[in-house]
């Protein structure tokens, strides 16, 4: 069922379920395409990353991504 943008916005703003109005098969996240890379780290770095990941209760990969993103934001 199609809905006009104004009605869609109203439903969203009021916290109504809008999922029936979305085609999630076509959903994309711009600039979020993933590409796998392999990086070799010294053992001491892995140990420190794992220690911090355990402390925060997140996977090692999450720590690496967040720290890299923070650094890249500073230099761009």
List the keywords.
single chain; 76 residues; mainly alpha
Q: Can you lay out the helices and strands and say which pair or pack?
A:
Blueprint: H1 5-13, H2 43-56, H3 60-75
Helix pairs in contact: 2-3
Question: How is this structure best described in words?
Answer:
The protein is an all-alpha fold and about 80 residues long. It has one domain (about 5-30, about 35-75). About 50% of the residues lie in helices and about 0% in strands. The chain has three helices and no strands. The chain has helices at about 5-15, 45-55, 60-75. α2 crosses α3. The chain is elongated and about 55 Å long. About 0% of the residues are buried. The mean pLDDT is about 90.
What is the H/E string?
HHH
The structure class reads mainly alpha
Count of individual beta strands: 0
Give the end-to-end Cα distance, rounded to a whole number of Å. Answer: 43 Å
Average predicted confidence as pLDDT: 91
Percent helix range: 40-55%
Task: Give the tally of structural domains.
Answer: 1
> Uncertain runs with pLDDT below 50, 5 residues or more?
none
């Amino acid at each position: 069922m199609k809905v006009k943008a104004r009605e869609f916005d109203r439903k969203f703003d009021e916290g109504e379920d809008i999922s029936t109005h979305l085609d999630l098969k076509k959903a994309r996240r711009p600039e979020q395409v993933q590409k796998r890379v392999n990086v070799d780290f010294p053992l001491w770095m892995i140990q420190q990353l794992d220690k911090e990941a355990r402390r925060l209760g997140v996977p090692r990969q999450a720590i690496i991504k967040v720290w890299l993103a923070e650094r890249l934001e500073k230099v761009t």
